[in-house]
């Protein structure tokens, strides 16, 4: 069964790459840019077919892909070359890959929530006996947590996470009877309750009926939760709280998906959990690709804006090859990082 989960995980990863590259390809075609090749995967071609001006290929290594546009990193006399298009068209083409990954993540989440009848909501449905926070100037039944110390509350478990991070006094925004109520510097600490082993805040969360509108809202909120998790991970990486050894690449992601499936109670649960993880990775890819790092889509957009600003101020045309050099250097560094991460992933698999 494990090998089936591995194959399923590889398939999902391949789909994420294909969707990303298709976003570039479709918008390039729509904007009139000539595309020489559209490939899913890297390395030797398993299948290829020429259709019109574009070669379509499926390649052996499912860890990448590309949409090869004419004049992508160099000057060209072809009026349909990427570099000869207006800046707004180039931005749309570059951003389209990440946008397609994000939309795919939303679609997967929506499909997973399609059969839901109710959602566990950050809404107060009850209080333990003696809870000190249930009062007229405090928390009340039916209140929905909206923000805690500036952090948006998307899921019920966000409440405990941000209360535990922020000390004893918290700035709360609650939704009560459709209106937002502010509770500034509200004292909240977990206390002991009779019959409970651990200290608790002393309230219970309720459920919200899964109407079509609620499903759409929870789909969006889940995607926003994924985005926040990515930003939190980036902050930890920049601050040194986590290092390169803690990062995972394609090998580690496939292994995590397979392990997630293997640990599930049933095949149906395994598929659900793997698809949920796939949706998170789709959103993760969308955000990571928009970082202003050379060789990534975000880096290309950033340098495009810098070039546009330089040319607007100096009225001089920059040779696209210099941008190509920057992206080439960035690609070398990125591939080096991927090699280190892949080595760590393989080492982790065989030593645990």
Q: What are the main properties of this structure?
A:
352 residues; alpha+beta; Pdz3 Domain; four-stranded antiparallel beta sheet; two-stranded antiparallel sheet
Structure report:
The longest helix is centred in the last third of the chain and has 32 residues, at 320-351. This protein has helices at residues 2-30, 87-113, 157-165, 212-239, 250-263, 267-289, 297-314, 320-351; strands at 35-51, 54-69, 118-127, 144-148, 151-152, 169-176, 179-187, 203-209. It has 8 helices and 8 strands, in the order H-E-E-H-E-E-E-H-E-E-E-H-H-H-H-H. The two termini are 20 Å apart. Strand 4 and strand 5 (151-152) form a beta hairpin. Helix 4 (212-239) packs across helix 6 (267-289). It has 2 domains: 2-113 and 272-351, no CATH class; 118-209, Pdz3 Domain (Roll), CATH 2.30.42. The protein has 352 residues and is an alpha+beta fold. The strands form 3 sheets. It has a 4-stranded antiparallel β-sheet with strand order 5-4-6-7, covered by helices on one side.
Main sheet attributes: strand count, strand direction, barrel closure: 4 strands, antiparallel
Residue ranges: pLDDT <50 for 5 or more in a row? none
Number of strands: 8
Apparent shape:
globular
Beta content: 15-25%
Structural class determined from secondary elements? alpha+beta
SSE order? HEEHEEEHEEEHHHHH
Question: Which percent bin holds the helix content?
Answer: 40-55%
Strand order of the largest sheet: 5-4-6-7
